[in-house]
Amino acid sequence: MPAAVRFGVNYTPSQGWFHHWLDFDLDAVRADLDSIAALGLDHLRVFPLWPYFQPNRTLIRPRAVEQLLALVDAAGERGLDVQVDALQGHLSSFDFLPAWTRSWHRRNLFTDPDVRDGLATYLHTLAAALADRPHFLGMTLGNEVNQFSAGPHPDPDPATEDQIDAWLEHLLAACERGAPGRLHLHAEYDATWYQDDMPFTPGQAARRGALTAVHSWVFNGTAQRHGRASVPAEHHAAYLVELSKAWAEDPRRPVWLQEVGAPAPLVPPEHAAAFTAATIANALDCPDLWGITWWCSHDVSRDLADFPELEYGLGLLTNDRRPKDTARALAEAAAADRHTPRPRTTALVVPADPAARSACAPGGPVFDAFFSLTADGARPTTVLDTRSRDAAHLAARGITDVVTPDQVLPTPPGGTRS
């Protein structure tokens, strides 16, 4: 574990969004990075667009790789470490898949051996090119690629849990061969924790890769059910951090809150800073938190069409790089002195069977029980039902009390109890 929690941002270029790779302007990137570094943050997560970097299965564009290296070097000059997400994949409601996987060349992203090997080559190429950069943290396989594997995606690439497990193992190994010893991981959106038929499972998230990544968005039903200032909304990120620990083999496995934001209109702009501060404070009360990486750095320009409305205003900074109140809230948290959080001694039992994970989703009995305990000040964590009587496991995690959802009173809308 690092000596202190890392604070960073998901880098969304102020000019051209992620299409900036087509017209790469290093001066514009440097200006963006200056505005990020001014907030006192220490890392970025960056997003090559897969079709732009690997337009053909056997072509990884050297110029694109050079541009990525230039971005990483520019970040390092400003004291910013960089995590690179290779498989994009999916960003802000748009899919970015190369032509060699679609239509006449339709191949399953997870089960086709040619796609898998093409991806392994791509990941290895990027990792190897970055391996000697001191400010390179590591590779994340991609951004929420689980959304391609099941509904509600309109054209999913179905796979089994075993097939996904083999895919993860193959691609993480390619990253490790390219850049040994770096922080290589995979990251999915919260269907991994909440959706019964999702082949990306909590066990994979909590056991494969250098650490566990969670992505927290309260537009998943949490804010709709409970409100923006409720206990469930303001503690949702902390809930995912603690939920992930039930499946981890290592009792001290680090967890990265890799993506979290304040989405309008569920969190109106005038309340976004308060939501940001509360979300961060509650996440910092989770032991073994590696870092918090806010979504996102800069707003999406209104010159770009067809984004969902909420995407345009998620930036900490405007398109002309002016910080918003949310940026100040994140900067203040990054600069603050803090103490290591106390162990969470009360554990809520969750089903180990991934086919029952909807119990953990908004409206499910685990979800409601967790926030009832939170409202009462219990600072809960979670434990699998298969480990709930394992004395050695409980002791290793500092757990002294175990409760089941049916032993906890439900949380009413708003998240508080009288």
Written account of the structure:
It is a single chain. The protein has 418 residues and is of the alpha/beta class. The protein has two domains: 330 residues, TIM Barrel (Alpha-Beta Barrel); 62 residues, no CATH class. It has 14 helices and twelve strands. The protein has a seven-stranded parallel beta sheet. Strands 11-10-12 form a three-stranded parallel beta sheet. It has a two-stranded antiparallel ribbon with strand order 4-5. A hairpin with a 2-residue loop joins β4 and β5. α10 packs parallel to α11 and α11 runs parallel beside α12. The model has no long low-confidence stretch (mean pLDDT 96).
Adjacency order of strands in the biggest sheet = 6-3-2-1-9-8-7
Structural class: alpha/beta
Q: Which radius of gyration do the C-alpha atoms yield?
A: 21 Å
Taken together, the total number of domains comes to 2
- Give the CA-CA distance, first to last residue: 39 Å
Element layout with pairings:
Blueprint: E1 6-10, H1 26-37, E2 43-46, H2 50-53, H3 62-77, E3 81-87, E4 90-91, E5 94-95, H4 113-130, E6 136-142, H5 161-178, H6 191-194, H7 202-207, E7 212-216, H8 222-226, H9 231-234, H10 236-244, E8 255-260, H11 272-283, E9 289-295, H12 325-335, E10 346-350, H13 365-375, E11 380-384, H14 391-397, E12 401-403
Parallel strand pairs: 1-2, 1-9, 2-3, 3-6, 7-8, 8-9, 10-11, 10-12
Antiparallel strand pairs: 4-5
Helix pairs in contact: 1-3, 4-5, 10-11, 11-12
GO molecular function: hydrolase activity
Keywords: Hydrolase
Protein name: Glycosyl hydrolase
